[in-house]
Amino acid sequence: MSDLSIDRDDVTSRRHSALAMDASVFRSLGHQLVDQLASLLDGVPSGPVTRERTPTGVRQALGLTGPLPEDGEAAGPLLERTARLLFEQSLFNAHPRFFGYITASPAPIGILGDFLASALNPNVGAWALSPAATEIESQAIRWIASLIRYDTACGGIFVSGGNMANIVCFLAARAAKASWSVREQGVAGSARQLRVYCSAETHTWIQKAADLSGLGTASIRWIPSDSALRMDAELLRKHIDADLAAGDLPFLVVGTAGSVSTGAIDPLPELRAVCTTYGLWFHVDAAYGGFANVLPDAPDDLRGLSGADSVAVDPHKWLYAPLEAGCALVRDAESLRVAFAYHPPYYHFGETATNFVDFGVQNSRGFRALKVWLALKQVGASGYRAMIADDIRLSGTLAQAVARHSELELISQSLSITVFRYVPADLRARRGEAEAEQQLDAINREVLDRLQRGGEVFVSNAVVGGRYALRACIVNFHTTEADVNAVPDIVVRVGRGVEWR
Fold first, then answer.
1. Distance (Å, rounded) from C-alpha 48 to C-alpha 88?
2. What is the DSSP letter of 326?
3. Architecture of domain 122-366
């Protein structure tokens, strides 16, 4: 603590307000809430992943249909009741059988980190408003870069998630590669049409980025993928050549390191070579798969993200941080200032200080980095190597269990995503026939709906090669071999209950 102190002992100088809470009350309620949450979290694995419910039912259960009350209520009972109801009415991505989306089980230290960050409540937009938080975020960015084998001298910023991390990098590329002052004159400042290149497996953030940046979604060139759903680098070259011949301005190639549907990884080294040849910005959407680069046996294609001009990663995926926590990394730190800043560099006590407001879209910013920084300090790189390797191993175990079952068809397994579908015995020999494929799609849609409502296991879906399939993604340090080995029998039991003839 500073030796400066302010005399506030005079109780008459204290303001009394409805939201105020003295230390003893805050301590008591905090202890009660932590005890309650510990018990509720401890019970999650033995309960359902979710319960079947309707929007109307949830509103009624939470008492969300009435007007704003004129008078308040006591904080203690309010917290206890709200915690209980939230656990009764929510889906649990911390459940060991939650495999639906790439949302991780939250690390306990991250939960406590959010509590601590809220207590401090810094605005991490300006260094003067958040000196400790700004420096912690800066170190967390360097540590993340180190973890994924990226240049630790890069610039970066914490954002809400993968969409925003990718959009930040997109805008940095636009500012860096436009041949005119695009921030001042807009995309209409030149007759040349900016072009961006990606595969059909790229996440929908790319449409949002093209739309919000003023390019329009028609500026996107969708490059066909190979049989492994990886972008075809030779076709990429041909599209770039065609656009250059038409007078357009290619500026950005987006590679994917772990697609949402199947975990596919684009040939990143080849894409980097194409970008070098044509002078384009190379961005890698590594929101999901980037952290697998911490492994000594990471796929060779994944190693190529080290050559990217920018990378997007999501700590709330494979670093198991509570939502929200995305991170944009840009090799040339000044590129972020060029894209977003409207102020000169900031100096404090003769040193250059970071104002994150100059690195991204937000002005007011919460302390997202603390929960990530705490977890990195708690377990270190070795801890993450072990947990990520376990998730990938368990996904492989699931794939093997699926392949052994006569009524399931394994479609793909990459990183920690396994894609498969239920195939009734009567349709197995007819796979590939148009009518049978339509029936299989309809059956698996119904199987997914019943699984998601049933609560035994939660998976999502993917469409691969035109086939509608079930998709299980493991980014969950609670999941065990028993959990993944239970999946085939559950799916087949549910599938057998679907009427399709």
1. 10
2. E
3. 3-Layer(aba) Sandwich (3.40)
State both tokens at 126.
Answer: 């300006």
Question: What pLDDT is attached to residue 348?
Answer: 75
User: How far is residue 195's CA from residue 182's CA, in Å, rounded to a whole number?
Assistant: 14
pLDDT of residue 273: 97
Beta bridge partners of 469: 462
Q: Could you give the residue range(s) of every CATH 3.90.1150.170 domain in the chain?
A: 380-496
DSSP 3-state of 169:
helix
Q: How far apart are CA 453 and CA 497, in angstroms?
A: 14
Can you tell me the mean pLDDT for 272-299?
Answer: 97
pLDDT interval class at 9 (50, 70, 90) = low
Which residue from 272, 266, 276 is spatially nearest to 301, judged by alpha carbons?
266
Is there a cis peptide before residue 351, judged by omega within 30 degrees of 0?
no
The residue-averaged pLDDT of 98-103 equals 92
Residues of the chain with CATH 3.40.640.10: 122-366
Judge whether residue 420 has pLDDT over 60. yes
Give 101's pLDDT tier (boundaries 50, 70, 90): confident
Residues in the chain: 501
Closest CA to 162 of 387, 466, 475: 475
- Please name the residue that has the structure tokens 């009764």: 88
**Amino acid identity of 344?**
P
Give the 3-state secondary structure of 43-112. Answer: HHHHCCCCCCCCHHHHHHHCCCCCCCCCCCCCHHHHHHHHHHHHHHCCCCCCCCCECCCCCCCCCHHHHH
- Find the DSSP H helices in 411-480: 425-428, 434-454
> Considering only CA atoms, which of 356, 364, 291, 358 is closest in space to residue 321?
291
Q: What is the pLDDT of residues 372-387, one digit of tens each?
A: 999 999 999 999 999 9
Given a contact cutoff of 8 angstroms between Cβ atoms, the answer to whether 380 and 374 are in contact is no
Q: With pLDDT > 70 as the criterion, what percentage of the chain qualifies?
A: 97
Pick from 158, 105, 461: which is nearest to 318 by CA? 105
Sort residue 211 into left (φ over 0), alpha (ψ -120 to 50) or beta: alpha
pLDDT value of residue 3: 61
Q: Is 403 helix (H, G, I), strand (E, B) or coil?
A: helix
> Is the CATH number 3.90.1150.170 carried by domain 380-496?
yes
- Residue pair 178/188 in contact (Cβ under 8 Å)? The answer is no
- What pLDDT, on a 0 to 100 scale, did the predictor assign at position 351? 83
Residue that the structure tokens 């510990």 belong to = 38
